[in-house]
Amino acid sequence: MRDVFVVGTGMIPFGKFPERTLSDLAWPAVKQALGDAGVSAKSVEAVFCGSALGGMLSGQRIMKPLGLTGIPIINVENACSSGSSALRQGWLEIASGSHDIVLVVGAEKLTKFGGGTLPLETEDWEVRQGMVMPAVYAMRAQRYMHEYGLTREQLADVSVKAHDHGALNPNAQIRKRVTREEVLNSRPVADPFTLWHCCPTGDGAAAVVLASAEAMRRYKPDAAVRLAASEVTSGIYTNGFRDMTWAELTARGAELAYEMAGLGAEDIDVAEIHDAFTIAELMYYEAFGFCERGRAYELLASGATSLGGNIVVNPSGGLLSRGHPVGATGVAQAVEVVRQLRGESGAHQVANARVGLTHATGGGISGFDHGACSIHIFTR
């Protein structure tokens, strides 16, 4: 397998843009990524587009205004892992020797649904009973609090950190700091969650240009970031008891990604993980081996995962503050980490970052921890 490098990044500020089409949202991010890489559209050999709810042929719709047609355009749907799964496919194309320059884009327009939770498939019996995503994570939070003594006040601190970071990120959907009291006293959603415990819905797009080592040397060798590991795996179905305090799928994927990269949890300087709800960030600290089980809040409270700490988690503000336009998230995480490793993140830059990790899960069906999980490790 050949080495794969990110040579260009692009991203629009996330937000709510009901007047824009999916293509209107995404093509500027693609153009920005190509410009950053110094790659012309005619040099792109294949496109992979991640979108969970963008509709048929989203990639072709996005590429049409750019004239980037007549090449393989593959559309990828894998729930909230759609963008990161598209990144995995782009990585495989280059690693296997099939192509030298590949474009990956993630895009989503959730304002078309008019608000509320993500629409799930009613053929699933849990969905028919009202098991929407805030309810699933609220159950996880309740069980974690019962098992490990986590308090509501401590859980609120995850949101405080996320919005402290997001306030520094010009691409974040929410650029407002919040206090513990504001989190606790905001509108109830699903006990113990209030509004500030939950990621916002919205619209967004991000893109990266991937290159082989040979192609990378023709474009931006001094700014290239190596994609050292790319893993996608799925949940293991069970119709019996599930430990809701343990992110089994993420832990299993992390082990595979660490092995592929030849690195461990102690090597990660910056991580963008799937904090769709506050409890998720704490559970993923443990799944990635950043701390022992039940010790996640201690890690958060120590400042280790905040800017200035030794393993900064979600310097972008994460899903809680940067936003979660589902199919765009995995690629946006990659853009964030690549820019961190390049030293291009401005006010929310992680000092001396050399190794970064991204992580996106996709759920919404009964019997699974999550349906999908994609983890990538980047090195400079």
Verbal overview:
The chain is an alpha/beta fold and 380 residues long. The protein has one domain: Thiolase/Chalcone synthase (Peroxisomal Thiolase, Chain A, domain 1), CATH 3.40.47.10. The protein is 35% helix and 19% strand. The chain is built from 13 helices and 12 strands. The chain has helices at residues 22-37, 58-63, 82-95, 125-128, 133-148, 152-166, 180-185, 213-216, 248-261, 278-287, 296-302, 318-321, 326-342, and strands at residues 4-11, 46-50, 73-76, 101-109, 188-190, 193-194, 203-212, 225-234, 270-272, 312-313, 355-362, 372-379. Strands 3-2-4-7-1-8-12-11-9-10 form a 10-stranded mixed beta sheet. Helix 2 links the parallel strand 2 (46-50) and strand 3 (73-76). Helix 6 (152-166) packs across helix 10 (278-287). The protein is globular, with a radius of gyration of 19 Å. The mean pLDDT is 96.
Largest sheet: 10 strands, mixed
What is the CATH architecture annotation?
3-Layer(aba) Sandwich
- How many H/I helical runs? 13
Estimated structural class: alpha/beta
Helix % is: 25-40%
**What is the string of helix and strand elements?**
EHEHEHEHHHHEEEHEHEHHEHHEE
Instruction: Predict the CATH topology.
Output: Peroxisomal Thiolase, Chain A, domain 1
The domain count comes to: 1
Summarize the structure in short.
The strands form two sheets. A ten-stranded mixed sheet has the order 3-2-4-7-1-8-12-11-9-10. The protein has a two-stranded antiparallel ribbon with strand order 5-6.
Itemize the secondary structure elements and their pairings.
Elements: E1 4-11, H1 22-37, E2 46-50, H2 58-63, E3 73-76, H3 82-95, E4 101-109, H4 125-128, H5 133-148, H6 152-166, H7 180-185, E5 188-190, E6 193-194, E7 203-212, H8 213-216, E8 225-234, H9 248-261, E9 270-272, H10 278-287, H11 296-302, E10 312-313, H12 318-321, H13 326-342, E11 355-362, E12 372-379
Parallel strand pairs: 2-3, 2-4, 9-10, 9-11
Antiparallel strand pairs: 1-7, 1-8, 4-7, 5-6, 8-12, 11-12
Helix pairs in contact: 3-13, 6-10, 10-11
